[in-house]
Amino acid sequence: xxxxxxxxxxxxxxxxxxxxxxxxxxxxxxxxxxxxxxxxxxxxxxxxxxxxxxxxxxxxxxxxxxxxxxxxxxxxxxxxxxxxxxxxxxxxxxxxxxxxxxxxxxxxxxxxxxxxxxxxxxxxxxxxxxxxxxxxxxxxxxxxxxxxxxxxxxxxxxxxxxxxxxxxxxxxxxxxxxxxxxxxxxxxxxxxxxxxxxxxxxxxxxxxxxxxxxxxxxxxxxxxxxxxxxxxxxxxxxxxxxxxxxxxxxxxxxxxxxxxxxxxxxxxxxxxxxxxxxxxxxxxxxxxxxxxxxxxxxxxxxxxxxxxxxxxxxxxxxxxxxxxxxxxxxxxxxxxxxxxxxxxxxxxxxxxxxxxxxxxxxxxxxxxxxxxxxxxxxxxx
Length: 381
What we know:
By secondary structure, this protein is of the alpha+beta class.
């Protein structure tokens, strides 16, 4: 065996001996290790942070801001053509009008003439029908004189002629109804209390049916577009008793109105992760206009015996750790009334309770703990 081979074997044997000695030493250290305890022996105790909570009255209150928007915007589109004869004073940008009021009038003379012509057509058709019915009666009388009780044919009874005359009368009446409708449409009205956004109509102007000459919105169809946190929206959707107050400043004065959640979560902001929601008005918002900024205050019903805890007290399994009088842990399942980013409101605590406020992964009921100095908490607000 050459010297280099002998040296290699010696090195391998030395490494194996070192590993064996290290394993033996580790086993010896493990058997001699005693965990540190508070009393110098027994089971190990965990060090935890605790706080004493006293349940009390609690009310969910939060605010957000939004912008007033119109639910619908209606174009000013006349249904008949003609020259504008008159325009209401309020039918200009910013003007307010009542439902059914005449906003502008198109020259009615041609339409009045058309109604009169159609009325004459109806009168003529009535006369033709009456003549056909009289001739039919005479023909039937003559048939009975000559043929007795033998049934007459439809031609003898002039049934086709009478049917034609009746159809002509019906068509004439329909034409008259269309003419009267066109005459009615020479007075332009809208079926809601509204405000004019823009108007391009003036006396003497010729308007074309189907063309747009401005726009208006329904003063009772306003809503507020705002943003809410996911927790706030979830609570509001499930809380019909919540009081929603809308405060807006318009024309130098503050307006306070009662509101409600119309629609929730139409979209989610990719940056803030807030949900876009729309609040409606329970009171008439007729004094507001689109674009006004508003503040929304949401006040939930007050509940008794609720404690406000830091969010860190809620463990990963959705439970709380309660510290008993003998400093041992007991698991507790909370009834969470509301949750925000940094805190939770719990409704079913058994009176004054000492709770672990830091996360304890892997802890178990009955574990003894060492605690920090407790800080008494005030009741939930």
